[in-house]
Each structure stands twice: as structure tokens, then as C-alpha cells.
Design a protein that fits this description.
binds zinc ion; Arc Repressor Mutant, subunit A
Amino acid sequence: MDVEIIQAIYQHKCVGIKTLTKQLDCSGQQIKDRLDGINSKLNEFAMEIKLVDEMLVMVNSSGDETLFSTLSNNELVYLRSILTEIINNDYFYGGIDALNIANPMNKTQMVQLLNRLIKTHWLTEIGNGYGIGIRSLLELSSLLHSISDHQLYVSHYNSVIVTKGYACPHCRTAMTVKQSENFAQMSKNCPNSKCKKLWKPIQIGQF
Ligand SMILES: [Zn+2]
């Protein structure tokens, strides 16, 4: 079963746990229960499967090696530029603006690259523009922190940067929209034990 899970996630790189339960004919809990064991095997290959917002993501734990081997220098510079724009423009950058980022590629090459970055989950499509993809959030988090002009919110539950969610105005404790749905059923107060003020959060990102 572990092998099937690894193969299925490897094939998609990023897959919803519901999709996987259908594909493998097992429950979400069965998959979750096996993650620690699976990760101890993947550890040898510097790979790790992370569960974020009911999505399973295959992460290269040795850093952004895969990115460097699949993108040219110009493409990497472009990715860094667009991530910088997204993170400093309320986690969204328009499609037309993205094509006007100064770089040596022509428009066709940029469109092809953008599509590839979406397919591989480095970027995500939001309306007619772009947001930060789940793999960038997981594998490029130190880069994201360093290119941001403001202090980023990280999830109370898994320390992943929150680009769409809610935060406590008193203590900056944050969570994604999905995490907040679970949380709202359990508590009316901030989950930070040092704060515990009534949960009246501010919004993070595009709604
Ligand atoms: Zn708080």
C-alpha cells in the first residue's frame, strides 16, 4: 500500500486526499496513518510527502534542486521576479503585468513558462492572474520570507506561509481558509494559548 501511495503522489506531485482515496480505494485516515512510515522511507531520497489543507504534496527536502535542474537561468530569474510581485501585492499579480516583467524572454516563452509553473504547482492561477503555488510555499519558503517587504503570516498548525486565510489582529496567529473551517467548529477564541482572545480575525490575501 505504501508503494501505491508513493507512486500516486509522485505521478501528480500534488494531489487532493479525496482524489487519492478514490484512486486507491481506501480512506483518508488510512493514508494519513501511513504518512510517517512512508516519509521515513522517502527520507533516503531527500523526498518527503507533506499534508497541507487536505492536499498531499511531494516535496524535495534537499531544497530547490529540482527547480534548478528544470529551469534555465532566465526562467529562474523570472520566477523569482513574479514571486516577489505576488507576495508584495497582496498575494496576487495580474496576467498582463506578469508578461511585462522585464526579462530577456519573449511573450510566447513567458506564456509557456507560466503555464508550466502552474502545471507543476510553483504558481497557481487566481482569476486572470497568478498566486503562489503550494510547492513554492513548501520548498521556497526561505526565499519567500527574504523577498517579502512585510512580515509574512505562517499557519498556526503547520508553519506554512498563509496566502489566503485569517489572522488574529492581537497576536498574528494565522490559518488558511480550510483550517479555519475546522477550527470554527471547535472554538471561538484565538488558538494561541498565550492570546486566547475572541477570534475576530483579519483576512489575508484575495477573497
Ligand atoms: Zn491571538
